[in-house]
TrEMBL record:
Source organism superkingdom: Bacteria
Record InterPro entries: Ald_DH/histidinol_DH, Ald_DH_C, Ald_DH_CS_GLU, Ald_DH_N, Aldehyde_DH_dom
Pfam families: Aldedh
All copies of domain Aldehyde dehydrogenase, residue ranges: 22-474
Coiled coil location: none
CDD domains: ALDH_F8_HMSADH
Keyword list, A-Z: Oxidoreductase
Family label: Belongs to the aldehyde dehydrogenase family.
UniProt KW Cytoplasm keyword: no
Name by which UniProt lists this protein: Aldehyde dehydrogenase
Claim: Membrane is one of the keywords in the record: no
Active-site residues, as the UniProt record annotates them: E252
Length: 479
């Protein structure tokens, strides 16, 4: 047990309704000051075996409950999250450096919503019967079994519960492998779920690194679904590991999304949307980091974005005034720095930032804007996952759309225009799972979410989640 921001957090796994230790541990480091928060149990194949066995044992009981009975428990989990919102917010901020004010203003209520929404949805989930030559066909959503869930550090609790909520509501049991860079709130979630009456073994948490705990989970023959949120290279490894067991996969991966700004736009809005991309220090999969601006307004747009970005307050994420915090780890800091140095060597010009924040030191990387990067260069094509925006210009709609679609990813795209006709035309041509028109980040939990190309496999949200977490069955009755 450790104490973080005044909150007690159990550093062991949660398996079969009990805390389980490991012989080995890993150190959890806070990005705020690179201090150690404590030693966390480092699981491996043995702990994964235990957790999958516990989830398999709990499955028949949980699956045989009605959606309404499961829903009652899951809504109590949501209530428990709401009751401990401030604890969760403080611990997550300390653990991964995300802004405390973001958690207070919405992230943690969304975490509770991930349980409430899918619990309610499962109760109403129904497909109308079909008729063929006098036969009646009934479509039902049966629980699939054990769901393995592997998640990243940038929004650990939100991204984990976005998968856990529907998986449990569908009647599946879960083994979660949280990120080693931000493992703590998953442990608090296990406490909350237990206190809410979630039966033993329905939700299991195995802590550990990707190589030691994630790998044995993804190749485990006892899992029936695998949900992964993370990077493309890891996704490839996981897909190969899961392939021999023919386990259905849901992948939410990286992005390199465009912010497409047309000359007919509301420039204030465009500038707001651009500056918003520095949120979470740019460690956001959906971030629209490639700014594509129509020639005639490019100079003014760029000048205003730079002016606003320069005024952002960088610092300790626990301070409500902070706009931009630190990067999650030393390794990630070096990775982001490397991207910017290579871009500059490759001809890009630094219009803002371009290096560590010299006053703050540590893992604080200054908000950075790069211009004149070479078409096709690394900085325009690879995901940086840091506070680094690029600006490119285009002449007309066709060129703007072409540049926006010049990516192997396809997670999201944002376009800013004052013309409803252009909004219709351009959004239809953009290659992205989500297109935002004159807005950003707004999304109902019932809407499909996922990416095209290298940004992922499949969609989740609403019925799409149940399509994945369930064995959808068709029963045909003779006349
Ligand atoms: P990552 O791929 O390094 O790690 C993600 C998870 O996979 C961690 O829990 C890690 O321990 C585990 N893992 C690592 N190697 C593994 C292996 N061999 N086998 C099994 N599991 C393994 O990603 P990250 O650095 O934690 O997160 C950043 C990435 O996540 C970015 O690419 C970002 O775009 C993406 N992301 C996507 C979404 C989305 O919804 N599309 C949301 C957030 C983040």
């Amino acid at each position: 047990m450790i104490e973080v921001e005044g909150v007690k957090v159990d550093t062991r796994h949660w398996i079969g309704g009990q805390r389980v230790s490991s012989n080995r541990t890993f150190t959890d480091v806070s990005p705020i000051d690179e201090s150690s928060l404590g030693e966390i149990a480092a699981g491996g194949a043995d702990e994964v075996d235990l957790a999958v066995a516990a989830a398999r044992e709990a499955f028949p009981g949980w699956a045989s409950m009605s959606a309404a009975e499961r829903g009652d428990i899951l809504r109590r989990v949501a209530d428990g999250i709401d009751a401990r919102r401030e604890d969760l917010a403080r611990v997550e901020t300390r653990d991964n450096g995300s802004l405390l004010r973001s958690h207070r203003r919405g992230v943690m209520s969304r975490v509770a919503m991930n349980f409430r929404f899918f619990a309610d949805y499962a109760e109403k989930l129904a497909h109308p019967d079909l008729e063929i030559r006098g036969h009646r066909e009934r479509i039902t959503y049966d629980p699939a079994g054990v769901t393995a869930i592997i998640t990243p550090w940038n929004a650990p609790l939100m991204l984990a519960t976005w998968r856990i909520g529907p998986a449990l509501a569908a009647g599946n049991t879960v083994v979660l492998k949280p990120p080693e860079w931000a493992p703590l709130t998953a442990s608090l979630l296990a406490d909350i779920a237990h206190e809410a009456g979630l039966p033993a073994g329905v939700l299991n948490v195995v802590q550990g690194t990707g190589a030691e705990a994630g790998a044995p989970l993804s190749r485990h023959p006892g899992i029936n679904r695998l949900s992964f949120t993370g990077s493309v290279p890891t996704a490839g490894i996981i897909a190969a590991a899961a392939a021999p067991n023919i386990v259905p996969l849901s992948f939410e991966l990286g992005g390199k999304s465009p912010l497409l700004v047309f000359a007919d736009c509301d420039l204030d809005l465009a500038v707001d949307l651009a500056v918003e991309q520095f949120d979470n220090a740019g460690q956001v999969c959906l971030g629209a980091f490639r700014m594509l601006v129509q020639d005639s307004i490019a100079a003014e747009f760029q000048a205003r974005v730079i002016e606003r970005a320069r005024a952002l307050v960088q610092g300790d994420p626990r301070d409500e005034r902070t706009d931009v915090s630190a990067l999650v780890s030393r390794a990630h800091f070096e990775r982001v720095s490397g991207f910017v140095s290579r871009a500059v060597e490759d001809g890009a010009r630094v219009a803002l930032g371009g290096g560590p924040n010299s006053e703050l030191g540590g893992l604080y990387y200054s908000p950075t804007i790069l211009v004149d990067a070479k078409p096709g260069s690394e900085i325009l094509t690879e995901e940086v996952f840091g506070p680094v925006l690029t600006v490119q210009t285009f002449a007309d709609e066709d060129e703007g759309v072409r540049m926006a679609n010049e990516t192997r990813f396809g997670l999201a795209a944002t376009l800013v225009t004052g013309s409803p006709d252009r909004a219709e035309r351009v959004s239809a041509r953009l290659n992205a799972g989500t297109v935002w028109v004159n807005c950003f980040f707004v999304r109902d939990l019932g809407a499909p979410f996922g990416g095209n190309g290298k940004s992922g496999i499949g969609r989740e949200g609403g019925t799409y989640s149940f399509d994945f977490y369930c064995d959808v069955k068709n029963t045909v009755f003779s006349p």
